[in-house]
Amino acid sequence: MSVVPFEVSGTRFGRPVRARRGSRFALPVALGLLALPLITAAHHARPAPYGDHLTVHARVDDGTATPELRTQGRVVQAYDRASGRPRWTYSREGARPLALLPAPGHAVALWSDGMVTDTARADGSAVRWHRAIPAGASWLRSPDARGAAGVLQPLDPRGRMLAVVTPQRVAAYRSADGDLRWVLPARRGCAFEPARSMRHGEALMIAQPCGDATTPWTSQLIAVDELGRIVPRRKPLGNELPGGAPDGPGTRAEQELAPPR
């Protein structure tokens, strides 16, 4: 057996070659075993995305009872109608819920940091999606926001489409996956007022006051539905999920509608 010299602590020794190889491989293995608990701890210590904290308190066996929704302080809560007991609660770090829109299967909330979220309403099993309102946090803190009145609006009776109304634009999202379907910007020199909106049949009417006193009142009120702004001979994009699936991710298609002249 050949013998080669190598150094340990600055002293020269003769050892078999296979002993040297064993020492070379043993050190990385030992370091890996020591690092494993640290890696596991770091994995568990990762913060929840968007600061989410979703807690399920009780599950309904038959799955038929739809919980009521409410906001309490800094949380959104779903609770049983009969017992009043909470079924799930949802909070986000550094934010509080300002508005809540119940829809079949969905609990849509608007938060003080300008985030819109959708939670599975029946069992609180997941937060399906998050969407941020551009410059939403600063506007929501202002008196002009009126406590976020009218910002969240359903665009169809079944709640399949959601409108987020801000002074600059109306953005429509598909409830199933949060896909942005169309955007309607406010006319130049005008601004939408979410608090001054109402439903008329299938349409959502939104006030759009303008600074120019000569602007006719007909231009200061717009009508939208799930397919976009209601105008003669429009050609809107469809909002169905690809392949006709009842739920799941879809491709993004944005329809930018030009403001009225």
Compact summary:
By secondary structure, this protein is mainly beta. It contains two helices and 19 strands.
What is the alpha-carbon Rg in Å?
28 Å
Strand proportion? 35-45%
Shape descriptor reads globular
Give the termini separation: 94 Å
Low-confidence region ranges: 1-17, 35-46, 246-261
Would you count the extended β strands for me?
19
Q: Tell me the strand order in the biggest sheet.
A: 11-12-13-14-19
Q: Please give the count of helices.
A: 2
Give me the secondary-structure category.
Answer: mainly beta
For the sheet with most strands, the description reads: 5 strands, mixed
Helix content: 10-25%
Q: Mean pLDDT, as a whole number?
A: 79
User: How many structural domains does the protein architecture include?
Assistant: 2
The helix/strand series, from N terminus to C terminus, equals EEHEEEEEEEEHEEEEEEEEE
What's the structural blueprint in terms of helices and strands?
Blueprint: E1 3-8, E2 11-16, H1 17-44, E3 52-56, E4 68-72, E5 75-79, E6 86-92, E7 97-103, E8 106-111, E9 115-120, E10 127-132, H2 136-140, E11 152-154, E12 161-165, E13 169-174, E14 180-185, E15 193-200, E16 203-207, E17 221-225, E18 228-229, E19 255-256
Parallel strand pairs: 14-19
Antiparallel strand pairs: 1-2, 3-6, 4-5, 5-6, 7-8, 8-9, 9-10, 11-12, 12-13, 13-14, 15-16, 16-17, 17-18
